Amino acid sequence: RMARIPDAMTSPQTRLQKIANQLTPGAGQALNVGGSKNLVDYKVVSGVAILTMNNPPVNSFSPAMKAAIGEAMKKANADAAAKAIVFTGAGKFFMAGADIPNLRKLASASTGPDLMRKGLKEGHDLMDVVESGPKPTVAAVNGPALGGGLELAMSCNARVGTKTSIYGLPELKLGIIPGMGGTQRLPRLIGVAGAVKAMLSGKPMPAKMAAKAGLIDKLVKKNKDLLPTACKVALAIAAGQLPRRKALEQKSRLGSLAKGEEAIELARVKSKRKAKGTPHAAACLDAIKAGMLHGGRKGLEAEMDAFAPLISSPSAKSLIHMFLASRQCPKVPGLEGIKPRKIQTVAVLGGGTMGAGIVALMLFKGYNVILKEINDKALYAGVERVTNIIASVLKRRRLPSIAMEMGMRNLTPTTTYEGFDKCDLVVEAIIENIGIKQKVFADLEKVCKPSCILATNTSTIDIDVIGEKTNARDRIVGLHFFSPAHVMPLLEIIRTTSTSKQVVADSIGYAKRLGKTPVTVGNCVGFTANRIFFPYGQAAAFLVDHGVCPYRIDRVLKSVVHMPMGVHEMGDLSGVDIGVHVTGIIAKAYGDRCYIPSLGKYLMEAKRLGQKTGVGYYVYKGRKGVPDAKGLAPFLQKARQGKQMIQVTDQEIVEMVMYPVVNESCRVLAEGHVIRDSDIDVVSITGYGFPAHKGGIMFWAKAQGIDKVCQRLAHYSKAYPKVAKFFAPCDYLQNLARKA
């Protein structure tokens, strides 16, 4: 979109090289702006003031950075040696958005609307100076430009980027909206429909897509050409040889009012289904619409009006908490200074649903993968599952079929241990049978190199027991994926007292490369995710056995708690037989505080195993489940024999199903199986789909009132004496309640 630069500016070609030669460390007038932290480096080169934002690690837009940019702009506009201004970032980032810890302070503080609006107005005034000040500005985008970083770049009169730069407004993922003009400038640069999609999804745009959309004016092929090209563009604008475009004043890309309103209202309908009562998507659309109807300035007013109440909303507090909690998870005390080793060749034992998902994910991420099965028939079935997963992903992403061939080239199917001597990691994903697993790990110790990590994907079995017949316990670790493995974001890393620090560090590095959220937990039956949620299913089973409709329970959990699926839908997905098996293991470990239901056993005997047999709690047509009250009735009658039927409200369903999860989470905390309570929040969201806009199970419990949770559990323990221990609040929870 950038018009051709006049020959007067490009000839001779040595001019560009001259600028490039001057853009070396220490060249020009180097000054530090922003106090002792040197948040903005200032220098003038060949008539261009270059402002380099330097706030490691991501050059976040903190209040101090805002002040430093303002100070640097004043200096540049007053500097007679500078004809134009170029912004860029130090390191690998241009600017990756707001200072999230500061956002959390704003969300939790009693900042009045007037004070909040004053801060927003200061940000808008700064963007106005960047966009319409005395001298033209150009953004030299050297890396991610996200949130406030993109808003700054859009305020510049032109944008030059590298091919690896990315652009996005992810604020809605934090329960807020862009606060420095993003709702107004993005639609004017790329059109209303594209801007709505970008803001509501929060997904960053790669450089080529951004350039095609009109967000970026010019892309350079080589990173070293970024600053020289940006400076050349800035000087051309200053000389009047290129137009000085101001995004807030652009109208051509907005399109017709009718089409813009249609795009907004269509997005409103779609987002309402996902919003679950949260206000930020609707507020963002309202601000965009205000600007479209009444102009950019009015749109900025609407943006400010919406931002202040959003930042203090429960959903924003929860989403900001989740964002920061997920970034704490990889930080494990005691691993400081330990670098993860390179993992490239990985073997997976077992090509079932879980094993195939793990294999497909690793092929997507560029690993060399060996898939081992016990015989040819099982191996062919496993490879077919992998192929089907890859094909479905390629179809969804609209990628060419050649990508399948390229991915499958790195897969080696086998029924032997050939090639295992070259493996850096082996992931066991076979049947949950202790004896078989022990034999497999004894075999792996013999065939794998001494540095190879031996991992199990078991969901319940004590890892010390699995490895007790080996002399390799220091390199045995649990890597608990969640189904479907190529989709679910959580990877539980289970360390035993013998697992070496190096192996834990390697596992975290492996998880990051897979794009997973790693949570390191202690070794106990069920680990953390499955352990804290075993009362979830058992409490629902207690209610069903005592007369409550299972479909009503699912409906309440989805409509009130906002779980993505009901507990019985989840049981059908994982398999009724799996649920019965896991319940037995959990009951053996945790004894009389468990509730052992009988309905699952009766369904299993009748081969009603869930989605895999087409019928379980629900009847399935494809993957969609339909209630089967008539078919389920005889099994319910059998399960309810001799039991007292009860009447409960929707609120009591929520309390009786969810509060025991809080209780078990407190036991996990008391036993030291997690590093911090926010790890439990991350596990509940990324492993079991607890709604992120509620912040995780412990964050939600605190919002409910820990003392209330404790009191209600004590009430149910007394009301139902036969399951008193199931509901009884643990000591840790009682202590929290007393402090509250």
- Counting H and I runs of at least 4 residues, what is the number of helices? 32
If strands are numbered along the chain, what order do they take across the biggest sheet?
14-13-12-15-16-17-18-19
Helix content: 40-55%
Q: Output the structural class.
A: alpha/beta
What does the radius of gyration come to?
A: 29 Å
How many β strands by DSSP?
Answer: 21
Query: In whole angstroms, how far apart are the ends?
Result: 59 Å
Biggest pleated-sheet summary: 8 strands, mixed
Categorize the overall geometry.
globular
Low-confidence stretches: 1-30
How much β-strand is present in the residues? 5-15%
Oligomer: single chain
Mean pLDDT: 92
Short description:
The protein is α/β, with parallel strands linked by helices and 740 residues long. The relative contact order is 0.06.
SSE layout:
Blueprint: H1 7-10, H2 14-22, E1 31-33, E2 40-45, E3 48-53, H3 63-78, E4 84-89, E5 95-96, H4 100-108, H5 113-132, E6 137-141, E7 145-146, H6 148-155, E8 158-162, E9 166-168, H7 182-190, H8 192-201, E10 205-206, H9 207-213, E11 218-220, H10 226-238, H11 257-275, H12 280-294, H13 296-311, H14 314-328, E12 345-349, H15 353-364, E13 368-372, H16 376-397, H17 402-408, E14 411-414, E15 425-428, H18 434-447, E16 453-456, H19 463-466, E17 476-481, E18 490-495, H20 501-514, E19 517-522, H21 529-545, H22 550-561, H23 567-574, H24 576-590, H25 599-605, E20 618-621, E21 624-627, H26 629-639, H27 650-670, H28 677-688, H29 697-704, H30 706-719, H31 724-727, H32 731-739
Parallel strand pairs: 3-4, 4-6, 5-7, 6-8, 7-9, 8-11, 12-13, 12-15, 13-14, 15-16, 16-17, 18-19
Antiparallel strand pairs: 1-2, 2-3, 9-10, 17-18, 20-21
